[in-house]
């Protein structure tokens, strides 16, 4: 009995140390098992990768884009021809005819405004002025030293500006007997004003002048005893009767 127990113990020990023999089919199945267990892992990775890609497409692809952005991209793609991109202009809100009509309307408005401003400036502009500002009346119209003085003398410092007494056209400008230098201006009513003894003349015959425009610089040329302007008025023309300049200016709102 002791021998049988020892044999059983030996058999149990050998079984523990050496695993039982397997058949060839079992061994083949055992060796092939790792390959079978690896396939589900590869499939899972592929599925995960596909899911991430699908999620990316859902976030950034056409289904997630707005309709407006999609339309813009499609329009750009449709208008692109190679390297050239066709220009897309914004939609017009008015017609060309309406725009031209607006331009004409603005031009007419500006012309009317300019005309009104010019008319206002013309209305405010003086039509007659004193020929010399700040001058002193040293001799009047009438008898003087045994002769008749047909104008008035306005004394002032040399080269003081002399002005056209009213709007008109320069008839004569240059040397004149007795005056040294003289200027003759024809006015709209036919009267002619005469300016003499100036140091220099600043206008030419045929030039249109406004009332108050500088026509000469005061001087002492010709038959003169000192710097002054000799001013005359010929009624109705250059050869018309010479009238009192003081009265003529007063009738036009200018006081000497």
From TrEMBL:
Do you know which InterPro entries this protein is assigned to? Cell_wall_metabolism_enzyme, Dup_hybrid_motif, M23ase_b-sheet_dom
Which residues does the UniProt record annotate as the domain M23ase beta-sheet core?
Answer: 148-238
Q: Which SUPFAM superfamilies match?
A: Duplicated hybrid motif
GO MF term list = metalloendopeptidase activity
| Stretch list, region Disordered | 1-37
**Keywords attached to this entry:** Hydrolase
Q: What top-level branch of life does the organism fall under? A: Bacteria
**PANTHER family for this protein:** MUREIN HYDROLASE ACTIVATOR ENVC, PEPTIDASE-RELATED
Q: Please state what the protein is called.
A: Murein DD-endopeptidase MepM and murein hydrolase activator NlpD, contain LysM domain
Q: Which organism is it from?
A: Blastococcus tunisiensis
Phylogenetic placement of the source organism? Bacteria, Bacillati, Actinomycetota, Actinomycetes, Geodermatophilales
């Amino acid at each position: 009995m002791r021998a049988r127990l020892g044999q059983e113990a030996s058999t149990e020990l050998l079984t523990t140390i050496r695993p039982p023999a397997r058949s060839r089919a079992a061994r083949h199945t055992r060796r092939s098992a790792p390959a079978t267990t690896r396939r589900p892992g590869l499939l899972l990775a592929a599925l995960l990768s596909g899911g991430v890609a699908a999620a990316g497409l859902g976030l950034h692809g056409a289904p997630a884009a707005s309709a407006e952005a999609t339309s813009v991209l499609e329009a750009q793609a449709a208008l692109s021809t190679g390297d050239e991109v066709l220009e897309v202009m914004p939609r017009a809100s008015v017609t060309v005819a309406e725009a031209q009509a607006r331009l004409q309307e603005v031009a007419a408005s500006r012309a009317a405004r300019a005309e009104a401003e010019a008319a206002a400036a013309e209305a405010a502009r003086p039509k007659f002025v004193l020929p010399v500002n700040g001058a002193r009346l040293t001799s009047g119209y009438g008898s003087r030293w045994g002769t008749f003085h047909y104008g008035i003398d306005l004394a002032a410092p040399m080269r003081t500006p002399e002005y056209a007494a009213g709007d008109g056209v320069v008839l004569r400008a240059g040397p004149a007997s007795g005056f040294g230098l003289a200027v003759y201006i024809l006015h709209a009513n036919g009267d002619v004003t005469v300016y003499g003894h100036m140091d220099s003349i600043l206008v030419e015959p045929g030039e249109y002048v406004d009332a108050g425009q500088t026509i000469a610089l005061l001087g002492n040329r010709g038959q003169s005893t000192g710097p002054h302007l000799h001013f005359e008025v010929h009624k109705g023309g250059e050869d018309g009767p010479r009238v009192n300049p003081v009265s003529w200016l007063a009738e036009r709102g200018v006081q000497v």
